[in-house]
Amino acid sequence: MKMKAAVLYDPSQPLIIQEVDLAPPQQGEVLVRLVASGICHSDVNIVRGEATAPLPVVLGHEAAGFVEEVGQGVVGVRVGDPVAVSLVRSCGHCFYCMRGHPNDCAGTHPLALETRIHALQGHPINQGVNVAGFAEFVVVDQSQVVKLPHTMSLVSAAVLGCAVITGIGAVVNTAQVEAGSSVVVMGLGGIGINAIQAAALVGARHVIAVDLLDNKLAFAKQFGATHTINARHENAGEVVRELTNGRGVDYVFVTVGSPRAVTDSLGMIRKRGTIVLIGLIGDDGTVPLPVSKAVLNEFRILGSFMGSSRISEDIPKIVDLYQQGRLKLDELVTGTYPIEHINEAIESMERGEAIRNLIVF
Fold it and tell me: Rounded CA gap, 218 and 330, in Å?
């Protein structure tokens, strides 16, 4: 079938909107007609050449839409169902899946070996970040879709598959933050804002938001931040220690891909505290680790990929909280753009104007 897609051929050039061919779903796969697709920094890093992907590629990895067709063996969803789509693809039987960590799946999937997207001239186009959501339709593994209530806005639901599960999951699943804890969140994009609201939801006493932009700090207040720090104008480590009687916080979540932010987090954490690294720095990104300080202060450093999420369980829980009015989703969507204006949406995000810009179909 033919569809419109935003294709990257050269990181020095904008995304090109073109018509491509999409093959039908195979065994265990689902064809989804997208309603909306979120723009994440991970996509933009590839567009700007700061991260690599096989080219040409269709990016986009958090989305929502309606099931259009299912391959043989698909269970749990059927044609017409509204679904959230995520990059988390799991086989269900590898070492990690069997231990309850499908986000770390080590299984081999047909979609990882061959693309379903081709140019009209016949050459293959890669399916970026497991989804290729900057297109009118996607073919994904059945493990990547989660059925949603028919009453839910699929524009709001599009952010579930990455920004929401990553930010909330880092707090709830990876770190397991306790009520009464003190928390710092560094970086207030889609992931950081969701870490803020998760910390507030679990009852953290201090929820301290750190960013370089005042508009994002103001936004964090709406999602539960108790304190805000503009690190461009203040020494964030000093302010954090003042707020915690010189002790430092229990948890620091670093949601930005910045070596400086990781280094700064070491000055905010208390003894026996926990630093959670979420933002990707790059394949060769490193940070000096003060080993003696780590030993003497007994702090922990945890990595969190996709919020350590099991999307089949976590997304329905998040949807329940949203429908109860206890968690914000609609407010995460800053702007919506047709696919023809995707480069404008990306530029707006890079200027710091957006928490999440979405492509809508």
Answer: 17
Q: Please give the model's pTM, rounded to 2 decimal places.
A: 0.96
How far is 256 from 195, CA to CA, in rounded Å?
12
Look at residue 283 and tell me whether its pLDDT is greater than 90: no
From residue 27, give the alpha-carbon distance in Å to each of 46, 73, 87, 110, 141: 30, 6, 18, 9, 9
Sheet containing 269-277, strands listed edge to edge, beginning at the edge strand earlier in sequence: 227-230, 206-211, 182-186, 249-254, 269-277, 300-303
Alpha carbon distance 264, 254 (integer Å): 10
Instruction: Quote the CA–CA distance of 168 and 163 in Å, as a whole number.
Output: 8
- The sign one gets for the Cα dihedral 13, 53, 60, 357 is negative
What are the tokens at 206? 């201090």
Q: What is the Rg, in whole angstroms, of the alpha carbon atoms belonging to the chain?
A: 20
Query: For residue range 17-66, what is the model confidence (pLDDT) as tens digits?
Result: 999 999 999 999 999 999 999 999 999 999 999 888 999 999 999 999 99
| Angle, vertex CA 190, rays to CA 189 and CA 194, nearest 5 | 115
Q: Is residue 245 classed exposed, middle or buried when 0-12, 13-18 and 19+ CB atoms within 10 A define those classes?
A: exposed
Strand residues in 124-265 grouped as ranges (E):
124-127, 137-141, 145-147, 182-186, 206-211, 227-230, 249-254
How open is the CA angle 150-312-117, to the nearest 5 degrees? Answer: 80
